Every structure is written in C-alpha cells, then in structure tokens.
Amino acid sequence: MKKAWWKEAIVYQIYPRSFCDSNGDGIGDLNGITSKLDYLKELGIDVIWLSPVYKSPNDDNGYDISDYEAIMTEFGNMDDFDKMLSEAHKRGIKIVMDLVVNHTSDEHPWFVESRSSKDNPKRDYYIWKEGKNGKEPNNWGSAFSGPAWKYDEKTDMYYLHLFSTKQPDLNWENQKVRKEVFDMMTRWCKKGIDGFRMDVISLISKPEGFPDAKVVGLYGDMNICANGPKVHDYLKEMNQKVLSKFDIMTVGETAGVTLDEAKRYANSEGSELNMVFQFEHMNLDSGEKFKWSTKHIPLVPLKENLTKWQLGLDDVAWNSLYFCNHDQPRIVSRLGDDSDEFRELSAKCIATCLHMMQGTPYVYQGEELGMTNTVFNSVDDFRDLESVNAYRELIESGLYTKEDMFPKIAHKSRDNARTPMPWDTSENAGFTTGIPWLALNPNYNKINVADQLKREDSVFHYYQKLIKLRKEYEIIVYGKYELLLPDDEHIFAYVRTLGNQKLLVVCNFSKTEQKFDFSGYENAKVLISNYDGNISEKATLKPYSAIALLLDNAQKM
Ligand code: NOJ
What we know:
By secondary structure, the chain is of the alpha/beta class. Helix content is about 30%, strand content about 15%. The chain contains 17 helices and 22 strands. The chain has an eight-stranded parallel β-sheet. A five-stranded antiparallel β-sheet has the order 16-17-18-22-20. Helix 11 (about 345-355) packs parallel to helix 16 (about 460-470) and helix 12 (about 385-395) runs antiparallel to helix 13 (about 400-410). The protein is globular. The model has no long low-confidence stretch (mean pLDDT about 95). The structure holds 1-deoxynojirimycin. 1-deoxynojirimycin binds next to loops.
C-alpha cells in the first residue's frame, strides 16, 4: 500500500464557536484556539480541521459564508488567523480548512447580484428555476425542513437551497463559478494552509432535468443530488487546477456515498480526494423516516457496516475513522453508556475500537474527555436551526406530538456536540468570562480538561496513548483488517495483519462480563487496555473492556 503523511496523521476537529473564548463575548474565537495549541500538542494530534471561520451571518454557524476570504467578526481577523496558523506550524500541527462550496450565504455578494435581476452577469452563479403550476419546480425537501426551493418575488423565480433558505446552492455547471472557487482555494493554499475538508461535496452536481425525488418523510429526498453526473469531473478538474499543486490533505464529506462511489472519490491514484467521510454507520440509530429517535446504535449492524468499509476501501482508497463531529450527538450516549459507572470505560472502549482500524482517525473536541450528550429542558434550549425547524415542522404536520418529538430531538440534536468545551470547574468551565452562546453541559464539574490532565487513568490520557501507538506501530495504520465473531451481540473483535505481525483488538460493548478465547495470543504484548491489561485473566471480558494485543511473530501462533 502506498504510504502518505495524511494516512499516518490524527486529525482533531475544532468547532471554533464552542472551543475557547478569549474576549468574553460568549463565542469561541481564533485567539482562544491559539491559546490551547499546547493542549493539542500534548494530546499528540497532527492536524486540526477547523470548522468554518469565514465571514458569515451565522444562520448555520458559519456553514453559510458571505466572504471566503475574510474572517468571521466574532472569531477575530486575518492577523489572528495568521498568528494561529504560524503558532500551529511551530508546534508541528497542520491546519485543514472547511471548504463550503456547495452553497454560499444569501448575503454573499455573488448571490446579492444574482438575485437582483434575470440578466445580471452573476444570475447563473446559482440555480434559478421557474415555478410549476404556481408551486416549487420539483418536490425536493431541504435538509433543514420545508421545500428546497425558495420563491423570490423580485424576478418571480425560485432558487435552490438544499440547506437553509439562507444557503443558496451554487451552480457548478457554470465554469465561472468553478474558476472563482478554484482561485479562492489556491489563494488559501498559497497562504500556507494544509488542506480542505469539503462540506457536502457529493452534492455539487445536480441530476439532469431536476426530476422529482422519492418522497421520504414530507418531501422528495434531496439525496437524489448525491454523486451527481458530473461530480467526479468537477473534482478531477479541482485536483488538476489546485490540489495536485500543493502537499495538502483533502477529505470529502460525502453524504449518500456508496462504497463504489467512495472508491472513485478517494481513489489511490490520487485523481480526486484523499479520503471520504461516509455516514452509514451514523445512520444506524435513525428513526424510520427521519434521523430523530431515542435508539442506541446496534452493535451487529455497526460491525457489519464498518467492516464493509474496512474491506471495501483496503488498497484502493482510504477511510476516515470517526464517531463524533459537530453534526453528531456524543458517541458515549449513542453507543456507550453515559452513566457515572460506565462513562469513562465505555468512552475508552469506543476509542480503542475505532483507533485500531485502518483509516485516518478524527477526534472531535471533547471526545478525548468522553463528553456526553447534554440536557435540554425545553425547545427554547436548542440553538441549531435543524433541530428547531424539525421540531416545529414535524409537530405541525401532525406526524408527532410534542411529547413524542422532544426526547427524540434531545437525543439526536447537533447541539449535543456543540456545548462549549469544558476546560475546568470555574464558572462557565473556563470557556468564557461572558455568557456562553449555548449552555454548557451541566456535567462540566465532572468532565473537564483540568481534571483529566491531572488523572493518569483519564479518557484524555487514554486517547493520548492511542495516538502515540498509531505513530509507533505501522500495523495500526496499514495492516489488513479481518472481523471476528460477526454475530456476537456484545463483542467487537478484529485482527489486523502486517507482515509477520498480528494485532488483536477485543472490545466488550456491554455492561456484563463476556467470554473470549485468546488462545494463540498468550505471549502477545498488551499495547493498550482500559483495565489492568492482564491477559491471563482476559478469558473473561469485564464490562466495556477493551484490549489490543500485538503478536510480533506470526510463526509463534
Ligand atoms: C454539513 C455540515 O457538516 C453541517 O454542519 C452543515 O449544516 C451542512 N453541511 C450545510 O453546510
């Protein structure tokens, strides 16, 4: 397998709004990030993926950009950015920017011009259509409720917005749009940034003729736009014109990606992107029609799914390994057990299972502390437009009652991931001296950085160790993967193989003891374990136990 620095790297995602506030306005900022770079260095990560920091009216917390080359006022300015970048580089940490180019903000000057008249030169920068019988051009729904089309009185036409009405979709068919985007990317690369995480990049090419889509829930499924007819042409063009000219890392957020499509996006010839973010494993706890539910992620389908991606991309493409990001509720509450008794154990078990796989691991801020979902007392506690809109729409539609819907939203809301980072036990957890834009998780007295840095057995130190192991043992990065016990409902176990080495990973995803046969591994070295690591007793797996064992010479087996 071809080696590459981005295959060996560990990425840490920062959601700047919630990371660290340096000026007391209740909103995290760039100087706040700079002040915590030593913390990230101590954790051992190599790359930061920064959620968007560009100028934005913040309808979707920065995923609605009004200027790609200015910094969001609340986050600071370009000098602060340059300082953050150079301080990160001094510490050997790279910075990957979020690239949101499926859509812009409706306040972006391009859109302001585009909507001003039908013959404006920028009209065709966006997707405008006539209505059909006084209604939307087709039945597509937006990811944030309601139809994906908004009527604009000024020119008596509709524009497409797969996300909020303030996020109009760019028209990638237009060569001028592509040039604007590629030139902007080139300028950022020349500034010295280290790569791009590409927001919903699988949606940029819309299906020809804009046909109605199959109705899921209330509207036609916007995923009809996923992996559209020209997406690979556009990415190849981007690769030739920009990406191939710099030594950068690229990851595509690819909603609706299939294994076959992923092999194209992240092909090992390098003609498109380095790796993809797929979502199948994150959808395993969805409700029937919508993502909203109170379910736990089921283990057998999870094993089946992750195994499919491990085997499917081996040698031909590259996986991103993740359980958490700013759109996902906290994994300890979804897959582990967030009670005091099992929170830390299950956080470590989940981490072991993910970090020993093939792919580039992503740690989302607070995941390294084992952060949990938060507590919502009323619908007024939500800030995320997705949650607020869905709650309103699904109740108004009569599909759910308030009583049904509230626990579902509380369990799956993106705000669970966005509560401010708990640095210590002081007021507002040391995140801000002002009023935080979103309430802290009330458990910050128990789960915070200061406590975990002090404790040798903390989740933080466990992550630190996992990260270090990946740098010490090539088998963790490049080894082949094989699943054991596919039907076991409690144990996730697999073997990685590289040359004469074997790495056995065994995780008990239950709060009861389980049996496992370790024969052949009696002389193996314990790389990591969340109990005492004594293998002779490991025939019984303790609740949420995890262990990784290295057998250095396969002949010994
Ligand atoms: C995916 C991003 O991760 C999410 O936060 C955002 O709301 C949508 N894309 C729209 O940009």
